[in-house]
Each structure stands twice: as structure tokens, then as C-alpha cells.
Amino acid sequence: MKKQANNFLWRGYALAFGVGVVGWLPVAQAQPAWPTKPVRLVVAGPAGGSADALARLLAEGLHKAWSKPVIVENKPGAAGALAISDMQSTGKDGHTLLVIQGGVVSEAPLAYKVHYKPFADLKPLAQISRTGLVLVANKDLPVSNLKQLVDYGKSQKDGLVFASYAAGLKVSGRLTTPLAAGYEVG
């Protein structure tokens, strides 16, 4: 009798476990695959810029891989803070991703007061390109290297003009200024 009771008890446990597992499996299988809706790629730069061009190539490949729309939205300005704010406020479910250039997280927080902590609030997923900064000048400028440029700049009454397409690059100019003999970057 005791043996029958033990068998019955074990069968009850097995049945309860089986019902629990079987009841759980359809729920796991019923979860929709991610992404469940269109994905936004927020670009911290202007339309037509290098980050925008890369984001559009990335969006095309992700659309093919996921069979879901991938929308590129440009949010230039404020040294990337506008794009980061957008991603932080709407990206909790992972359907809003950010495409930014490295200077936005590595240089801008050093030069400007920003509302985000780059290493606490942002999670890098992939490096999608590798680019470098190139110093170029008009072909008629009488210099051919950085040392000559520095000397030429010092000889000019008002110095030289430094132009960039974004505030982050101006920060790069300021950071490299000590290397270039200390003239001010405006």
C-alpha cells in the first residue's frame, strides 16, 4: 500500500511538472520575434553627412535581415545631445537605436556640459566604420606639413581660421592645439 501511495505521489509530481512545462512552452513560442515594429536609427548628424550615409546603408541591410522597416531620422545639433535625448526617451524597448560618431561620446562631454554619462547611459553595440580626421588646406597655401602650418599661422597677424562640420571636431582641434605649438583654435 505504501509503495502504491509513493508511485501515485510521484505520478502526481510528474503530471504537475509536465503540465507546467507544457503550459509554459506555448507561451515561450508565442512571443513574437524582435523587432515587433519598425526600428528607428537616430543619427546625431545632418542629412547627407557621413553618419547619415552609413546609417542608410545599415538600415537597408537590417531591413533585409529583419523584414521590418528601418527608418533613419537625423537629429543634428547640440554636440549630439538632441539625438541622445531622443534615443534615451524612446529607445527603452530597443526599437530606437543611435548612430553617432565617436567624438560625440568621447570628446563632447569633455568640452561641454551634457545631460548624459557616456559610459553609464549608452551601450556600444558595434563599430560600423572607422574614419580619421584629415587636415587639408587650399592648394595655394605655402605649407606642406603641420610644422610649416604652425609656423605660418604664428607669422599671420590674426592667426589662421579653423573650420569643421561639427562642434565635436572643433573640440578635436582644441585637444590637438598643444601638439601644434599652442595657437588658439576658434
Q: Secondary-structure map with pairings?
A:
Blueprint: H1 2-30, E1 39-43, H2 50-66, E2 70-74, H3 81-90, E3 96-99, H4 102-106, H5 108-111, H6 118-121, H7 146-155, H8 167-176
First-to-last CA distance: 94 Å
Roughly what percent helix?
A: 40-55%
* Total individual domains: 3
Judging from the principal axes of the Cα atoms, what is the shape?
Answer: elongated
Radius of gyration: 28 Å
Give an account of the 3D structure.
This protein has 8 helices and 3 strands. The protein is mainly α and 186 residues long. The protein has 3 domains: 31 residues; 83 residues, D-Maltodextrin-Binding Protein, domain 2; 55 residues, no CATH class. A 3-stranded parallel beta sheet has the order 2-1-3, with helices on both faces. The chain is elongated and about 70 Å long. The protein starts with a helix and ends in a 10-residue tail after the last helix. About 8% of the residues have low confidence.
Main traits of this protein?
single chain; 186 residues; mainly alpha; D-Maltodextrin-Binding Protein, domain 2; 3 domains; 3 strands; 48% helix; elongated
